[in-house]
Design the sequence.
Protein backbone atom coordinates (compact mmCIF):
# COMPACT_ATOMS: atom_id res chain seq x y z
CA UNK A 1 0.00 0.00 0.00
CA UNK A 2 1.33 3.49 -0.79
CA UNK A 3 2.68 5.55 2.11
CA UNK A 4 1.20 8.87 3.24
CA UNK A 5 2.60 11.70 5.36
CA UNK A 6 0.47 14.18 7.31
CA UNK A 7 1.46 17.81 6.72
CA UNK A 8 0.48 20.80 8.88
CA UNK A 9 1.77 24.34 8.33
CA UNK A 10 1.27 26.47 11.44
CA UNK A 11 2.41 29.56 13.30
CA UNK A 12 2.66 30.90 16.85
CA UNK A 13 -0.86 32.31 16.91
CA UNK A 14 -2.27 28.84 16.22
CA UNK A 15 0.01 26.96 18.63
CA UNK A 16 -2.69 25.75 21.05
CA UNK A 17 -4.90 24.66 18.16
CA UNK A 18 -1.99 22.88 16.54
CA UNK A 19 -1.16 21.11 19.79
CA UNK A 20 -4.76 19.92 19.97
CA UNK A 21 -4.53 18.65 16.39
CA UNK A 22 -1.33 16.76 17.25
CA UNK A 23 -2.99 15.13 20.27
CA UNK A 24 -5.90 14.07 18.07
CA UNK A 25 -3.54 12.64 15.43
CA UNK A 26 -1.84 10.55 18.11
CA UNK A 27 -5.22 9.44 19.42
CA UNK A 28 -7.17 8.74 16.22
CA UNK A 29 -4.79 8.24 13.26
CA UNK A 30 -3.89 4.65 13.84
CA UNK A 31 -1.66 3.61 10.94
CA UNK A 32 1.51 5.35 12.11
CA UNK A 33 1.68 7.90 9.29
CA UNK A 34 4.41 10.42 10.03
CA UNK A 35 3.29 13.96 10.79
CA UNK A 36 5.30 17.03 9.73
CA UNK A 37 4.58 20.44 11.29
CA UNK A 38 5.99 23.27 9.16
CA UNK A 39 6.76 26.57 10.87
CA UNK A 40 8.79 29.78 10.49
CA UNK A 41 12.26 29.86 12.00
CA UNK A 42 11.13 32.13 14.84
CA UNK A 43 8.48 29.59 15.87
CA UNK A 44 10.65 26.45 15.94
CA UNK A 45 11.42 26.60 19.67
CA UNK A 46 7.75 27.11 20.54
CA UNK A 47 6.65 24.09 18.50
CA UNK A 48 9.59 21.84 19.38
CA UNK A 49 7.76 20.10 22.29
CA UNK A 50 5.21 18.74 19.80
CA UNK A 51 7.85 16.52 18.19
CA UNK A 52 7.84 12.83 19.01
CA UNK A 53 8.56 9.50 17.36
CA UNK A 54 5.90 10.09 14.70
CA UNK A 55 6.11 13.89 14.41
CA UNK A 56 8.81 16.23 13.11
CA UNK A 57 8.81 20.02 13.45
CA UNK A 58 10.34 21.47 10.27
CA UNK A 59 12.01 24.88 10.06
CA UNK A 60 10.94 26.66 6.87
CA UNK A 61 14.60 27.47 6.19
CA UNK A 62 15.00 23.79 5.29
CA UNK A 63 12.24 24.16 2.69
CA UNK A 64 12.41 27.58 1.06
CA UNK A 65 15.24 29.38 -0.76
CA UNK A 66 17.44 31.63 1.36
CA UNK A 67 16.74 34.64 -0.87
CA UNK A 68 13.18 34.73 0.51
CA UNK A 69 13.76 36.89 3.56
CA UNK A 70 11.75 37.01 6.77
CA UNK A 71 11.21 40.52 8.11
CA UNK A 72 9.55 41.58 11.33
CA UNK A 73 8.98 45.30 11.77
CA UNK A 74 10.84 46.68 14.81
CA UNK A 75 8.67 47.06 17.90
CA UNK A 76 9.24 50.82 18.06
CA UNK A 77 7.89 51.27 14.53
CA UNK A 78 4.94 48.93 15.02
CA UNK A 79 4.02 50.80 18.22
CA UNK A 80 3.65 54.12 16.43
CA UNK A 81 2.14 52.77 13.22
CA UNK A 82 -1.46 53.84 12.49
CA UNK A 83 -2.37 50.29 11.49
CA UNK A 84 -1.90 46.87 13.04
CA UNK A 85 -0.70 45.56 9.67
CA UNK A 86 2.87 46.30 10.70
CA UNK A 87 2.53 43.96 13.69
CA UNK A 88 2.66 41.04 11.29
CA UNK A 89 5.87 39.83 9.65
CA UNK A 90 6.40 39.75 5.92
CA UNK A 91 8.53 37.63 3.61
CA UNK A 92 10.13 39.45 0.72
CA UNK A 93 12.61 39.22 -2.12
CA UNK A 94 13.54 41.37 -5.08
CA UNK A 95 11.58 39.09 -7.41
CA UNK A 96 8.28 38.68 -5.57
CA UNK A 97 5.55 40.72 -3.95
CA UNK A 98 5.86 41.00 -0.16
CA UNK A 99 4.05 38.01 1.31
CA UNK A 100 2.28 37.42 4.61
CA UNK A 101 2.44 34.26 6.68
CA UNK A 102 -0.64 32.80 4.99
CA UNK A 103 1.08 32.97 1.60
CA UNK A 104 4.28 31.39 2.92
CA UNK A 105 2.38 28.59 4.64
CA UNK A 106 1.09 27.67 1.17
CA UNK A 107 4.62 27.64 -0.20
CA UNK A 108 5.77 25.36 2.63
CA UNK A 109 2.97 22.94 1.80
CA UNK A 110 4.29 22.64 -1.73
CA UNK A 111 7.98 22.61 -0.81
CA UNK A 112 7.70 19.69 1.64
CA UNK A 113 7.23 17.34 -1.34
CA UNK A 114 10.92 17.84 -2.12
CA UNK A 115 11.97 16.72 1.37
CA UNK A 116 9.91 13.60 2.16
CA UNK A 117 9.70 10.23 0.45
CA UNK A 118 6.06 9.24 1.01
CA UNK A 119 3.78 8.61 -1.95
CA UNK A 120 0.96 10.81 -0.69
CA UNK A 121 0.65 14.02 1.32
CA UNK A 122 -2.38 14.63 3.53
CA UNK A 123 -2.63 18.30 4.47
CA UNK A 124 -4.31 19.00 7.80
CA UNK A 125 -4.84 22.63 8.78
CA UNK A 126 -3.70 23.45 12.29
CA UNK A 127 -7.16 24.63 13.37
CA UNK A 128 -8.79 21.25 12.70
CA UNK A 129 -8.95 18.21 14.96
CA UNK A 130 -9.59 14.51 14.37
CA UNK A 131 -12.64 13.24 16.23
CA UNK A 132 -12.97 9.71 14.79
CA UNK A 133 -10.56 6.89 13.98
CA UNK A 134 -8.84 7.37 10.64
CA UNK A 135 -6.28 5.55 8.53
CA UNK A 136 -4.44 7.42 5.80
CA UNK A 137 -4.44 4.21 3.78
CA UNK A 138 -8.17 4.81 3.19
CA UNK A 139 -7.24 7.68 0.88
CA UNK A 140 -5.83 5.21 -1.65
CA UNK A 141 -7.67 2.97 -4.07
CA UNK A 142 -5.70 -0.03 -5.23
CA UNK A 143 -2.22 -1.30 -4.50
CA UNK A 144 1.03 0.63 -4.86
CA UNK A 145 1.37 0.06 -8.60
CA UNK A 146 -1.46 1.94 -10.26
CA UNK A 147 -3.01 3.13 -6.99
CA UNK A 148 -5.12 6.27 -7.17
CA UNK A 149 -5.39 8.89 -4.43
CA UNK A 150 -8.43 10.77 -3.16
CA UNK A 151 -8.80 14.25 -4.65
CA UNK A 152 -11.33 16.60 -3.10
CA UNK A 153 -13.26 18.53 -5.75
CA UNK A 154 -16.45 20.56 -5.45
CA UNK A 155 -17.64 20.56 -9.07
CA UNK A 156 -18.44 24.05 -10.35
CA UNK A 157 -18.03 25.34 -6.81
CA UNK A 158 -16.40 28.62 -7.86
CA UNK A 159 -19.04 30.98 -9.22
CA UNK A 160 -20.46 34.47 -8.95
CA UNK A 161 -22.76 33.46 -6.10
CA UNK A 162 -19.88 33.32 -3.61
CA UNK A 163 -19.11 36.25 -1.28
CA UNK A 164 -17.67 39.24 -3.20
CA UNK A 165 -19.11 37.73 -6.37
CA UNK A 166 -16.51 34.97 -6.27
CA UNK A 167 -13.81 37.39 -7.48
CA UNK A 168 -11.12 36.19 -5.06
CA UNK A 169 -11.67 32.51 -5.84
CA UNK A 170 -11.78 33.29 -9.55
CA UNK A 171 -8.46 35.14 -9.28
CA UNK A 172 -6.93 32.13 -7.54
CA UNK A 173 -8.23 29.82 -10.27
CA UNK A 174 -6.91 31.99 -13.10
CA UNK A 175 -3.52 32.28 -11.37
CA UNK A 176 -3.37 28.49 -11.06
CA UNK A 177 -3.87 28.06 -14.80
CA UNK A 178 -1.29 30.71 -15.69
CA UNK A 179 1.34 29.25 -13.39
CA UNK A 180 1.06 25.79 -14.95
CA UNK A 181 0.68 27.09 -18.50
CA UNK A 182 -2.86 25.78 -18.84
CA UNK A 183 -5.88 27.14 -20.67
CA UNK A 184 -7.65 29.84 -18.66
CA UNK A 185 -10.80 28.47 -17.01
CA UNK A 186 -14.39 29.44 -17.62
CA UNK A 187 -16.78 29.85 -14.71
CA UNK A 188 -18.34 28.18 -12.83
CA UNK A 189 -15.12 26.26 -12.19
CA UNK A 190 -14.18 23.39 -9.91
CA UNK A 191 -13.17 24.16 -6.33
CA UNK A 192 -10.33 22.13 -4.77
CA UNK A 193 -10.04 24.13 -1.53
CA UNK A 194 -10.53 22.34 1.77
CA UNK A 195 -8.75 22.15 5.12
CA UNK A 196 -8.04 18.43 4.73
CA UNK A 197 -6.85 17.50 1.24
CA UNK A 198 -4.56 14.83 -0.19
CA UNK A 199 -2.04 15.24 -3.00
CA UNK A 200 0.29 12.85 -4.81
CA UNK A 201 3.92 13.69 -4.11
CA UNK A 202 5.01 12.77 -7.64
CA UNK A 203 2.43 15.17 -9.07
CA UNK A 204 3.61 17.99 -6.78
CA UNK A 205 7.19 17.50 -7.94
CA UNK A 206 6.09 17.51 -11.58
CA UNK A 207 4.02 20.63 -10.91
CA UNK A 208 6.95 22.54 -9.42
CA UNK A 209 9.07 21.66 -12.46
CA UNK A 210 6.25 22.71 -14.78
CA UNK A 211 5.95 26.09 -13.05
CA UNK A 212 9.70 26.63 -13.45
CA UNK A 213 9.60 25.58 -17.11
CA UNK A 214 6.69 27.91 -17.86
CA UNK A 215 8.06 30.90 -15.95
CA UNK A 216 11.81 30.49 -16.36
CA UNK A 217 12.12 31.19 -12.63
CA UNK A 218 12.38 29.25 -9.39
CA UNK A 219 8.87 28.05 -8.59
CA UNK A 220 8.74 30.12 -5.37
CA UNK A 221 9.59 33.27 -7.33
CA UNK A 222 7.02 32.43 -10.01
CA UNK A 223 4.21 31.95 -7.48
CA UNK A 224 5.33 34.92 -5.38
CA UNK A 225 4.95 37.24 -8.37
CA UNK A 226 1.19 36.70 -8.16
CA UNK A 227 -0.64 38.96 -5.75
CA UNK A 228 -3.28 36.29 -5.15
CA UNK A 229 -2.93 32.50 -5.25
CA UNK A 230 -4.24 29.31 -3.70
CA UNK A 231 -2.07 26.21 -3.46
CA UNK A 232 -5.18 24.01 -3.54
CA UNK A 233 -6.33 25.54 -6.82
CA UNK A 234 -2.82 25.31 -8.28
CA UNK A 235 -2.55 21.61 -7.47
CA UNK A 236 -6.16 20.88 -8.43
CA UNK A 237 -5.79 22.47 -11.86
CA UNK A 238 -2.59 20.51 -12.45
CA UNK A 239 -4.06 17.20 -11.27
CA UNK A 240 -7.15 17.76 -13.41
CA UNK A 241 -4.91 18.47 -16.41
CA UNK A 242 -2.92 15.29 -15.83
CA UNK A 243 -6.11 13.23 -15.66
CA UNK A 244 -6.69 14.12 -19.32
CA UNK A 245 -3.29 12.81 -20.39
CA UNK A 246 -2.10 9.24 -20.78
CA UNK A 247 0.51 9.60 -18.03
CA UNK A 248 -1.94 10.90 -15.43
CA UNK A 249 -5.08 8.91 -16.11
CA UNK A 250 -6.45 7.18 -13.05
CA UNK A 251 -3.99 8.70 -10.58
CA UNK A 252 -6.80 10.23 -8.51
CA UNK A 253 -10.29 9.26 -7.54
CA UNK A 254 -12.72 12.16 -7.07
CA UNK A 255 -14.57 12.95 -3.85
CA UNK A 256 -17.05 15.81 -3.62
CA UNK A 257 -17.34 15.88 0.18
CA UNK A 258 -14.79 17.07 2.71
CA UNK A 259 -13.45 14.67 5.33
CA UNK A 260 -13.51 17.59 7.78
CA UNK A 261 -16.65 19.51 8.69
CA UNK A 262 -15.70 23.15 9.12
CA UNK A 263 -17.14 26.14 10.92
CA UNK A 264 -15.84 28.82 8.60
CA UNK A 265 -17.16 32.03 10.14
CA UNK A 266 -19.45 33.43 12.82
CA UNK A 267 -19.38 34.02 16.54
CA UNK A 268 -17.18 32.02 18.90
CA UNK A 269 -18.77 28.67 19.71
CA UNK A 270 -19.46 27.60 23.28
CA UNK A 271 -19.46 23.98 24.44
CA UNK A 272 -23.08 23.45 23.39
CA UNK A 273 -22.39 24.89 19.95
CA UNK A 274 -19.43 22.55 19.53
CA UNK A 275 -21.55 19.58 20.65
CA UNK A 276 -24.15 20.45 18.03
CA UNK A 277 -21.46 20.65 15.35
CA UNK A 278 -20.10 17.26 16.37
CA UNK A 279 -23.56 15.70 16.38
CA UNK A 280 -24.20 16.87 12.81
CA UNK A 281 -20.99 15.33 11.49
CA UNK A 282 -21.52 13.30 8.32
CA UNK A 283 -20.78 9.58 8.92
CA UNK A 284 -18.01 9.82 6.33
CA UNK A 285 -16.27 12.73 8.08
CA UNK A 286 -13.51 12.21 10.62
CA UNK A 287 -12.55 15.72 11.73
CA UNK A 288 -13.85 19.12 12.80
CA UNK A 289 -12.36 22.41 11.71
CA UNK A 290 -13.03 25.55 13.73
CA UNK A 291 -11.52 28.55 11.98
CA UNK A 292 -9.19 30.33 14.36
CA UNK A 293 -10.54 33.79 13.57
CA UNK A 294 -13.93 32.83 15.07
CA UNK A 295 -12.25 33.07 18.48
CA UNK A 296 -13.54 29.69 19.67
CA UNK A 297 -11.60 28.50 22.73
CA UNK A 298 -9.63 25.35 21.75
CA UNK A 299 -9.77 24.12 25.35
CA UNK A 300 -13.53 23.62 24.93
CA UNK A 301 -12.90 21.43 21.92
CA UNK A 302 -10.29 19.47 23.87
CA UNK A 303 -12.84 18.81 26.62
CA UNK A 304 -15.43 17.72 24.10
CA UNK A 305 -13.14 15.37 22.14
CA UNK A 306 -11.13 13.74 24.90
CA UNK A 307 -13.67 13.65 27.74
CA UNK A 308 -16.32 11.79 25.76
Sequence:
Amino acid sequence: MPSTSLITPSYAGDFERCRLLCESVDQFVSDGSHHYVLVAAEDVDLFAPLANARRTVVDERELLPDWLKFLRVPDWLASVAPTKALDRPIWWSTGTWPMRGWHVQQLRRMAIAQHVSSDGLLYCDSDMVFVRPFEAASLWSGEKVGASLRLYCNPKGIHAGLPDGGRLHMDWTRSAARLAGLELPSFPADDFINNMVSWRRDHVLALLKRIEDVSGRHWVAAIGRHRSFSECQIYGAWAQHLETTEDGSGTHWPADFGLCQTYWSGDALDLEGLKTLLETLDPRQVALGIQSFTGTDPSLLRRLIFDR
Summary: The two ends are 33 Å apart (CA to CA). The mean pLDDT is 91. The CA atoms of residues 182 and 241 lie 8 Å apart.
